[in-house]
Amino acid sequence: MEKITKELSGKTALVTGGTKGIGKAIADELASLGATVIVSARHEPAEKLPYHFIQADVTNSDSISELAGQVLNQFGSLDILINNVGGTSAPAGGFSVLSDEDWENDLQLNLLAAIKLDKALVPSMIERNTGVVIHISSLNGKLPLYASNLSYGVSKAALNNYSKALANEVAIKGIRVIAVSPGMVNTTAMKAFLHNYASAIGKSFDETQQLVMDSLGGVPMNRLAQPEEIAHLVGFLSSPKASYITGTNYVIDGGTIPTTF
């Protein structure tokens, strides 16, 4: 019987924040396509994952250097880098309630972590003239919600701009760089955000979810995405089938942002 070679066989991938939510779904997707998957997170998962785990805090420069060193020392090279880590703990309420620390934390987590990890790992891709870097951004990078997550949206907008600039710089060196911007996704992080926002504005969870959807202009599909739906797109973009795609930001939001030409 002829052996079937999977699209990512022989490739090594790192997924930051890969132990839960969108990151876990992406790790599963890349593994299903044949990749050797490494996941990192601040804390070791409660349940053992079928991937190589490296504990790392990507908001810490020393931790990033150690993570990159372990990846290259143990696996020799990296083919796919998924900068998935992101989030916010900043309060709702607009610009006047955000402290300097809120801004610094969101910029560190949603922008600088990716920049620093790219700087640590992309040079090894350039040496081999091949590699894929995907930045998991957010719909809020295009549609910032000032009342609920202003600093998060601003940091993701900056990530989008950086991603495009990096793509233009390294395309000639064989590296593809892409951003993926999900809308509302059914994850524990999204539920925590909605619960916190509901408490802040004195509404129920369901009312708050609908309020956020409405504030985005509505979601034509009238539901949240599942993490696996984001992961399927990332799997395709990581594969040779997407070999002519770089410098693009893929919005996957159930139709929230109108298509423009």
Tell me, what's the shape?
globular
At the fourth CATH level, what is the homologous superfamily?
A: NAD(P)-binding Rossmann-like Domain
Total number of helices: 7
Name the beta content range: 5-15%
> What is the level-2 CATH architecture name?
3-Layer(aba) Sandwich
Which whole number gives the mean pLDDT? 92
Cα(first) to Cα(last) distance is 47 Å
Topology pattern, helix = H, strand = E: EHEEHEHEHEHHHE
Please name the CATH topology: Rossmann fold
**Share of helix, binned:** 40-55%
The major beta sheet can be summarized as: 7 strands, parallel
Rg, nearest Å: 18 Å
> Which strand order spans the largest sheet, edge to edge or round the barrel?
3-2-1-4-5-6-7
Number of domains: 1
Number of strands: 7
CATH class: Alpha Beta
Low-pLDDT residue intervals, each spanning 5 or more residues? none
Describe the structure.
- It is a single chain.
- The protein is an alpha/beta fold.
- The radius of gyration is 18 Å and the shape is globular.
- Strands 3-2-1-4-5-6-7 form a seven-stranded parallel sheet, with helices on both faces.
- 45% of the residues lie in helices and 14% in strands.
- It has a single domain, classed as 3-Layer(aba) Sandwich (Rossmann fold).
- The protein contains seven helices and seven strands.
- Helix 1 (21-32) packs across helix 7 (227-238) and helix 3 (100-128) runs parallel beside helix 4.
List its salient traits.
261 residues, alpha/beta, Rossmann fold, seven-stranded parallel sheet, 7 helices, 45% helix
